Amino acid sequence: MRCFVRKIGKSHHAAFDFGGVSYTYSLRTHDEREAEVRIGPIRDTLYRLESGTLALPPGADPKTFIASSGNLAKKQNPEAHLTVNGLSDRFIEWACGYYVKDAKPTNQVLLIRLAMKVLRELYGRDPASSFGPLALRTCREHFIKQQLARTECNRRTRIIVQAFRWAVENELIPAVNLEALKAVKGLPKGRSAARESEPVRPVPDAHVDAILDHVSAQVRAMVELERLTGMRPNEVVQLTTGCLNMAGPCWEYTPPHHKTEHFEKGRVIMIGPRAQEVLKPWLRSALNEPLFQPREAMEALNEERRAERKTKLWPSHIEHQASKRKPDPERVPADRYTVNSYRRAIHRACDKAKVPRWSPNQLRHLASTKLRRQTGDLDAVRCVLGHSDADTSAIYAEKDLQAARAVMLKFG
Questions:
Q1: pLDDT category, 212, cuts 50, 70, 90?
Q2: I need a surface site. Which of 38, 92, 181, 183 has the fewest CB within 10 A?
Q3: How far is the C-alpha of 151 from the C-alpha of 149, rounded, in Å?
């Protein structure tokens, strides 16, 4: 009996003969290697029919019986027809409820959607239980063609594996699928077609100083705080008076949220005398109000523009301007900066100052480099930046806080 892969249009089909009749059955894949894997059970069923170890049931359709590997008489799993699209929909729904911070989805949800988009485009209509290592590698090749960095290709590939791990955990597909996907190793450095990402380097002090005259007072203070303390961008935008412990010569800042909180690690940022001078003008009596607010920055900018007017602002001008304002505008200045709005403000200032664009996270690298050069103590720098050993998950020990406090009293 003949059985081979035939390409019809863009899709691959199994072509086989049985009982003097030729049949074709869609393998639901565009990948030739994946088609060779999927045709295997059909060849095995034909061999068993030819050798007499399997018989066609009376009245059964030969094509359907052979394509199902002779399992028509068996009880069907209620999830046997779950497609990749169905699995993706359920996984995204779960992720939207799981990856939440401050009642909003985190950036991880966006990454999951981007990974699932490629998965659905390539294999959306295929049975989820048929998705194997070759299909996973095809998705990864698609990420490479998108010009994503090698590390990002590996991350999105892991997200696809995570989706199938979640499906196995919820008994939607057999565990054997997950075990097969685990055999696919990540792309090693320098041994793949994926481009390598540039390492994040400290921004030169000269480039930081160049933008200070082109940003608002709020952004200027945030930049100086990052440069002095080494805190992360998402930590500086969360600053409120209520999060500060101002007892003692070195202040302590405990951010409401931080990068490693889901690992049950604590985060305390030491603020030395120089950083305190930056913060003092922004302290508020309302403990939970953000210290740095875009709304106030916009109001200050408008006041500055009005003060620089060369012609007098007549009452008719004021009335005309008021009439142009929408009663319910779609976009209004927010009461707090986000990491994205903070970064955009810096990028605009870089363009005005005609220096290469740099990102807020590079200020943390700058602080790390300067502290290491000034102290010569790598362990003290680790304490200041909130890094911990890879083998521990405990909350920072008191000795770490004391070391960080001593460093920031001197340099921060």
A1: very high
A2: 183
A3: 6
* Beta-ladder partners of 271: 251
Owner of token pair 């007892």: 247
pTM for the whole thing?
0.62
Structure token digits, residue 405: 């406090």
Hey, what are 46's tokens?
A: 């034909």
Torsion sign, CA atoms 147, 148, 150, 155 = negative
What is the side-by-side order of every strand in the sheet holding 244-245?
Answer: 244-245, 251-253, 269-271
Q: Is 199 exposed, middle or buried (0-12, 13-18, 19+ CB in 10 A)?
A: exposed
Band the pLDDT of 397: cuts 50, 70, 90: very low
Contacts of 381 (CB under 8 A, 6+ apart): 368, 371, 372, 375, 407
What domains can be seen in the chain, in order of their start residue? 3-67 (no CATH), 84-181 (1.10.150), 205-308+333-411 (1.10.443.10)
How many percent of the chain have pLDDT more than 70? Answer: 87
**CA within 13 Å, CB half, 408:** 32
Q: Kindly report, residue by residue over 132-168, the tens digit of the pLDDT.
A: 999 999 999 999 999 999 999 999 999 999 999 999 9
Mean pLDDT of 246-255: 88
